[in-house]
Specification:
alpha+beta; Helix Hairpins; 9-stranded mixed beta sheet; disordered N terminus
Length: about 300
């Protein structure tokens, strides 16, 4: 098995060697404000180019992801069409209300002129008073329909932007599938390969991408929200497994996390410090998409704890 890893900021990838420790495969300097997670694919491709080895691309997983995402895009498109019709209807109702305001305002103006000409007093039940009441009602209705029209337009704008983004993502998936099929056709000697990623690279999109590229991954969550969610799954009755001299672990095989297209093997482990009675809870992902046994996460986490 080929094992690779990388460090952050300098965008470097390395391969462990029995004699020299680590052999740098590629180094690319970036400005200090470069976001690490945007460089993951480039690092993997640079390592593959240097090694002239790569695993078989998991095109079957990518096809399943595309099929599922196509359904999401279809649903968004249907919602978009409904919202277009809703905007059209609310605009029509608003126009009708504004026309009614003009009609009732003209009636009030004519009655006021008539009352002044005839020097008649306006009474609560007079025609002028009733016309004013009808005008107030229709003005409120027009204001309500104006607000409804604005809200409908905001929903439409939001869905339109979402649909455009989904279309762009779908195009990326189609291009990726074509490229991966070409990679597999040209890769007669595919290898099994493993990557250990820094948390800065561990976005769900990068995790999914490297799974589709054929790699087994060990990484930490990119977002603190994932850690917070997993902490909620642990209580005083949770059984922790000792995996080292100063580490304990609890695991969830094939856990489906929100915003991640694939089920992941996830483990939370605690580093136990002698001078600190309170364990420091950390989280590690074992992202194999089911290709390997979850039991391998224990030695992997143990190595991470020892590091």
């Amino acid at each position: 098995m080929t094992k690779s890893g990388w460090a952050t900021r300098r965008a470097s990838s390395a391969r462990p060697r029995p004699t020299y420790g680590r052999l740098w495969l590629s180094v690319a300097h970036h400005p200090g404000d470069t976001v690490s997670c945007t460089q993951a694919e480039a690092l993997v491709l640079a390592a593959e180019a240097r090694l002239r080895l790569r695993p078989r691309r998991r095109t079957e997983l990518l096809r399943q992801r595309i099929a599922a995402f196509e359904q999401v895009v279809t649903q968004t498109g249907e919602r978009l069409e409904k919202q277009k019709q809703a905007v059209k209807q609310t605009k029509a109702l608003l126009v009708a209300a504004e026309q009614q305001v003009q009609v009732y305002q003209q009636q009030v103006d004519e009655l006021e002129e008539d009352y002044q000409t005839r020097q008649r007093a306006e009474r609560p039940t007079s025609r002028l008073a009733q016309a004013r009441q009808r005008l107030q009602v229709i003005v409120k209705r027009a204001a309500s329909r104006t607000s409804a029209c604005k809200q409908a337009q905001l929903r439409l704008d939001k869905t339109t932007a979402q649909w455009s983004q989904q279309q762009a993502e779908l195009a990326v998936f189609y291009q990726r599938l074509l490229r991966f099929e070409q990679d597999n056709a040209a890769n007669a000697e595919a290898v099994e390969a493993e990557f250990r990623l820094d948390a800065g690279f561990g976005t769900y999109e990068n995790v999914a991408l490297l799974i589709e590229m054929g790699y087994d991954l060990y990484t930490k969550p990119h977002s603190h929200k994932t850690v917070a969610y997993l902490k909620q799954q642990v209580d005083d009755t949770t059984a922790w497994t000792r995996v080292g001299a100063n580490a304990e672990l609890v695991a969830w095989p094939a856990l489906q996390l929100k915003h991640c297209p694939y089920a992941l093997d996830v483990a939370a482990f605690a580093l136990l410090h002698r001078q600190n009675s309170e364990a420091q809870r950390l989280v590690s992902f074992r992202c194999s998409a089911g290709d390997r046994g979850f039991a391998e996460v224990v030695p992997a986490v143990q190595r991470q704890a020892d590091d």
